[in-house]
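Onboarding guide, step 5: your first structure request.
Type a short instruction followed by the sequence, for example:

Predict the 3D structure of this protein.
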Amino acid sequence: SSATCLFHSSVDLFIMQEDSETSFQQVLRDSFKGIPRFTRTIVVLVFILFLIQLVFPSTRHTLALTADFILASSVSFVQLFTAGFLEVNIINLCIDCVVFLWLGKYLEPIWGTREFMKFIFLINIATTMTTYFLVILLYMFTGKESLLYHYFWCGFSGIVSGLLVAIKQLNPEFGIPLFVFHLRAKVIPSLIVVITIVLMCVGISLHAAPFILLGTCYAWFYLRFLQRKGGSVGDLNETFAFSSFFPDAMSPIIDKFSGIIYNIFNMCGVWRWLGVSLDNPTQNNKSDSADAERRRKRAAIALEKKLSEADKQTSNESLSQVV
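The system replies with structure tokens like these:
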């Protein structure tokens, strides 16, 4: 009798484990259902570039950003486009593509494909060009020729970091599951930047480091001042100020510093050239700020609605399987 009970208990435990594994697999599959076409196209492009450099390693200095190679031939300028989509490490490739698919699933429908595409390509070009000029300046100050010939810079992480800034803007309190933790969206971009800087300080060479740092900065700048939605431009909400990337204790100092930088740009005519007609960002026009807050809330509601619909669909499918 005891042997029979033990047998039935073992069977029940095995069935429960199978159901748990099936449920996890179902949730995993449902998380990547309904991914827009353009998002999938970008991931295919990233995989193709990875395979090209894997099969033909000599193409790395052509596809990645290499300062001296950019003018080597009439087609070398292609690296200004491909560097931001090239991954040379299989682990980074998998992580970036999975995160990008998840981000694209929600951001592309909210923004629209055209705006989503515009954001990605602007961040990519701006990040790559800035990295190129920084490498040239670094060479001029240090005289190290290895910066021009030996080092190459690339990484899809820059675009992914920029999209994480967009999630921070839409819903800063949104919890993103990470293994056993739930991180709030507003801290993830800052956390990634800090980890990148720490790794660089301890001597770990990261091909994607400038793309991550610059991609985060350019994404914030574009969303803060330049993104057009309807009749309004940018997002002047205080929750998306530059100081929101830093601990609360540092906010007053960062706000003063960013105000000085803003005034310098204003004196140089940068804002007028970019079509930004704003007051000091620490003293925003109330109507503009309120409008930005309304748009942010609408986008956050849309994001939460899509997430809840996905969870509801997963629950219904799991229930139907049990029945």
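Each response can be followed by summary notes, for example: The CA atoms of residues 91 and 131 lie 23 Å apart.
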